[in-house]
Structure to design on (206 residues):
């Protein structure tokens, strides 16, 4: 059932307030009172929708991942109908990078130094989604180790690679290209999954 327009507007104001306050202080120091004052919304109204600030940010991340999941499914349908492993992961990587770029106002402050809680919360969402991709395609993608180990390895490797590249002020398109190269190398080396057939030219990664 769709939410009432007024509820969506109230939630949007609260989420925007959180994003704006995060530029001034870490998440752990932000109070519900501050969020309400910043968005001109009463505490009663806040608690009518959220139990606490953690529920608010959890909803924000969940919405992002829902959008990224839809993007992933569309990409799979468009350029990977046979579910080739490398193209599957490249599509997933594209969706994660798009998610990050589209939500830069929040995610730029979601770092391990600035906001460790938000960082680990967002990262856990990403890892769970990678786990789901592998689980749903376990007949095609055959991990050598547990799905959690493989998902953690891939996500940690790519996250560190991209974080260092962004810290060096490398452009997002170069980061995207190089991250795909690294990811493809990991998969082709059969470090974490069983030997995979080479992708066809029509479905090779960008």
């Amino acid at each position: 059932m769709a939410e009432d327009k007024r509820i969506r507007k109230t939630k949007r104001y609260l989420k925007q307030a959180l994003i704006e306050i995060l530029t001034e202080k870490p998440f752990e120091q932000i109070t519900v009172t501050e969020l309400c004052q910043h968005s001109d919304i009463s505490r009663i109204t806040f608690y009518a929708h959220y139990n606490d600030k953690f529920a608010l940010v959890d909803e924000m991340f969940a919405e992002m991942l829902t959008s990224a999941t839809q993007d992933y499914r569309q990409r799979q349908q468009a350029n990977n109908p046979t579910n080739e492993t490398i193209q599957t992961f490249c599509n997933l990587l594209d969706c994660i990078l798009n998610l990050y770029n589209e939500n830069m106002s929040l995610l730029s402050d979601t770092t391990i130094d600035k906001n460790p809680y938000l960082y680990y919360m967002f990262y856990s969402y990403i890892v769970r989604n990678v786990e789901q991709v592998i689980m749903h395609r376990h007949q095609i993608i055959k991990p050598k180790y547990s799905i959690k180990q493989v998902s953690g390895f891939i996500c940690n490797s790519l996250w560190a690679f991209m974080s260092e590249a962004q810290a060096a002020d490398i452009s997002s398109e170069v980061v995207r290209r190089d991250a795909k190269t690294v990811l493809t190398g990991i998969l082709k080396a059969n470090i974490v999954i069983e030997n995979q057939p080479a992708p066809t030219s029509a479905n090779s990664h960008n």
Q: What stands out?
A: The chain has a mean pLDDT of 88. Residues 53-79 form the longest helix (27 residues). The chain has two domains: 5-49, 54-197. The chain is about 70% helix and 0% strand.
